[in-house]
Design a protein that fits this description.
Pfam families: LysM. Keywords: Chitin-binding, Virulence. This is LysM domain-containing protein. InterPro entries: LysM, LysM1-like, LysM_dom_sf. The chain is α+β, with helices and mostly antiparallel strands. Among the domains are: 75 residues; 52 residues, Roll (Membrane-bound Lytic Murein Transglycosylase D, Chain A). Helices cover 16% and strands 14% of the residues.
Amino acid sequence: MAAYNAALVTKPSLPEETGLSYPIREGAIEGCVEYNAAIAPMTCKSFLALNRITIAQLFKWNPAVGADCSNLWLGYQYCVSTDAVPTDIASSTDTPTTTPTPTPTKTTSATPSPTAPSAPGPTHPGTVENCDEWHVVGDSDTCWSITQEHGITLDQFYKWNPAIQNDCGTNFWPTYAYCVGVSA
């Protein structure tokens, strides 16, 4: 058997990292200042992580991908940054603010029921009362990653956590607890 000689090994060429060789996916918003290509073996989750964006941002800037990222096509570029100052996408450095709504006729028991564990962090008004499983948002979490981790749909997640308003940007804050399971 011949000895291995690294100088004789040819390395396969990788796709150009700049994404210039890939077409921009139709439907990207105007004002995009940076595009990045989705290439194999990327998944939606890895594309979001690589570009440090949320699924809400990807969908807002590239509506063709779908709210659940099911139409992220490999071999195309997507908008990953705009010149607009985000107003509806909360970052981990934002300080959550809520406007308290007085509810003098509604009382809440301080004792959690045995079938519904108490939330392990702050929650938003409107979260379903029969929640029995929670997820506390970390810095890298997205609505999509949470639903995948807990085996639920985005529709269920939004229904159980209506403060998020189906965009995963409004009221989606690190350290807050969101419902990921309900009792029947």
